[in-house]
Design goal:
Length: 94
């Protein structure tokens, strides 16, 4: 199955942080990747993400302004399973 790609826009990249806005059209995905840094996600829209992991799939609700954090090494594919655009800001700590 071919999915559209989520669109990352780097807003800040310096020696301390990388701040990226991620926009997911309905059905869009990041593709499989492994996080090289600890990071914080700040949802800008409500919705849900489908996370494909080595341990299977899980769903993660998004609530605007309700941030969450993950540790370095997370490996997954992030998919927007909703029928509307989903947007979040990802802040990686170097």
């Amino acid at each position: 199955m071919h999915r559209p790609q989520a669109v990352p826009t780097i807003q800040i990249s310096n020696d301390r942080v990388i701040v990226t806005e991620w926009r997911f059209a309905p059905g869009a995905e990041t593709g499989w990747h492994r996080h090289a840094h600890d990071y914080v996600v700040v949802p800008m829209t409500d919705g849900e993400l489908l996370l494909e992991t080595a341990d299977g799939e899980r769903r993660a609700p998004l609530v605007p302004g309700q941030s969450y954090t993950r540790n370095v090494g997370v490996e997954h594919n992030v998919i927007n399973p909703t029928e509307h655009e989903v947007v979040f800001i990802e802040i990686e700590m170097r």
